[in-house]
Amino acid sequence: MSEGKSPRHAAEQESADVSEAEIAVHWPEEDYVLPAGQFIAQAYLTNPGVFERFSLDRFPECFKEFADLLDWYKYWETTVDTSAPPFWRWFVGGRINACHNCVDRHLAAYRNKTAIHFVPEPEHEAVHHLTYQELFVRVNELAALLREFCDLKAGDRVTLHMPMVAELPITMLACARIGVIHSQVFSGFSGTACAERIADSESRLLITMDAYHRSGELLDHKEKADIAVAEAASAGQQVEKVLIWQRYPGKYSSAARLVKGRDVILNDVLAGFRGRRVEPEPMPAEAPLFLMYTSGTTGRPKGCQHSTGGYLSYVAWTSKYIQDIHPEDVYWCMADIGWITGHSYIVYGPLALAASSVVYEGVPTWPDAGRPWRIAESLGVNIFHTSPTAIRALRRNGPDEPAKYNYHFKHMTTVGEPIEPEVWKWYHREVGKGEAVIVDTWWQTENGGFLCSTLPGIHPMKPGSTGPGIPGIHPVIFDEEGKEIPAGSGKAGNICIRNPWPGIFQTVWKDPDRYVRQYYARYCKNPDSKDWRDWPYMAGDGAMQAADGYFRILGRIDDVINVSGHRLGTKEIESAALLVSEVAEAAVVPVADEVKGKVPDLYVSLKPGLLPSTKIANKVSAAVVSQIGAIARPHRVVIVPDMPKTRSGKIMRRVLAAISNRQEPGDVSTLANPEVVERIRALAT
Ligand code: PRX
């Protein structure tokens, strides 16, 4: 353990501050909504006996069913090695390749089936339907290039900073084919955020695109690569090559100069690899497939390391049985591949099942809120997957749009944040036309795939609640003392998972201590125990369980703000603000927002002698955008005379959050400076 603390002690300190788990539940319990008979008639999973098959006493052998959805070069010997908790090793001894499983093995039956429908944002541009054969060809050519032109080999890391284009899954699969670990950074993140991830993963190569469309504009993206490479170099990581896809092959769409000897137009070099084939590398099941960075309690984003065999089996099984993807379905997950949802449920899960998966470049409401429904109609999409934020935006901007289009969803997913029952009902009634079943899936970047959800062909739905743990997942809610909070008690606590599962991440890249500390230490009664039962996984979410076993997720218990379903660390935002020379202190708090769920309000105090000004506030806002990306842009920057502080000097974010949300801050008399509260309130409201 770092700093010589016991794991338990360290974790207690981290979570002692705020406990959203203690907040009262403000939504009344909703009535059940039954799945349509039509859906059940065709669903893969309709027998509740599945839960017996996956009962805790069948752990871990029950997960063989997951692995058996895949092709193995060498079948594994040990289902899970739990001898060094909490570092779990799934399907030990097995050899597998993720690219083979998502591409090659489908050629015999599905060569001419569409693997990826790429939908450009400009509506006049043609949709590109990439067949499995075409995907195979393009992935092979790129894999050959990565190996020979870039000298990459299994185990190397490559950072991708790519928008939502077909080339992104092609690039990921080409990496997977030769055992290279990809680390895709959300394209909306800044060059600085990209640099941080390049440095942490020690990538020698950056793969990007010159430009992409967003909200009607062709955005210059290559300029971010220049920042990323320069800043990674100052952090000690040299990027040798930048490979640049062209959004329009043959035409360079960026104003940023090409750096000689470093920047390479990928489309040009690929011409020399025409027709090349590369045998997929048989990787150990536990070889890392990719890194996905996410925000946590400290400032630095952490690289969640996901395995090949365990992860792929998990996303394949959950895509098949929770999303009910059949070979004839057209599936559209409207997330961004830059987040875990896109990795698991646009790329790896659906492609492992030989599905047709839609990749849409732009924003859902561009040029109007009818766009998603036009896409659904024209491609015959019948499974749809999105977030409450997108649903809220579509509902606000075009409540009557879905009815205008002739599409029919059999199944819809919501993910990423709690969905208000009213919004859920609109989704069900208008988007789903009363026919589609909805699954509200709860999980996290660290988890690989869904943890809680109703089974679409078995359970009734309950608006605003996720469901019980999916087969093989055994959640439990603990109170602060580690006592179990029973279902139906009306009390909230910290949701944990009792058992390991194949999709769980392997570690935090280069920081195993943090992995143990943040996710396992809190409720581990005996750090020396070698028994997996002593190592429940703590998700960091407050939750309660109703008498029927359904969970309701209440939000983060740590310093993380969930903006539009994406996690932003408060410390990341605050450290960006502190880069502005005038700023002395910064504190960020979540504010409820009608569309985005939560948005960050940023409070700053200035160094002595400086006067507040709009100029400084704008500078702070710009610093946050350039450090992290537009997604973290503060809703407001409020310059305050001083922060509300405890006598020991700790900033009371809770008081600021109350002010931002127009609530009563409660008793502030114990603060070191109670008089400042009213002054802040006057400034902020
Ligand atoms: O607080 C939970 C919330 O999103 C967090 C995970 O965020 P991220 O790692 O970015 O992954 C998002 C997509 C999997 C969780 O800790 N969350 C996720 N799904 C739900 C949710 N909150 C309520 N209901 C959900 N269905």
From TrEMBL:
Database matches in Pfam families: ACAS_N, AMP-binding, AMP-binding_C
Span of domain AMP-binding enzyme C-terminal: 572-650
The UniProt record lists the keyword Metal-binding: no
Keywords of the record: Acetylation, ATP-binding, Ligase, Nucleotide-binding
Residue ranges occupied by any AMP-dependent synthetase/ligase domain in the UniProt entry: 104-501
Residues of the Acetyl-coenzyme A synthetase N-terminal domain: 54-102
Lineage top rank: taxon: Bacteria
SUPFAM superfamilies in alphabetical order: Acetyl-CoA synthetase-like
Molecular function, one GO term: acetate-CoA ligase activity
EC number: 6.2.1.1
Matching PANTHER family: ACETYL-COENZYME A SYNTHETASE, ACETYL-COENZYME A SYNTHETASE 1
Name assigned to this protein: Acetate--CoA ligase
Lineage, uppermost ranks: Bacteria, Pseudomonadati, Pseudomonadota, Betaproteobacteria, Burkholderiales
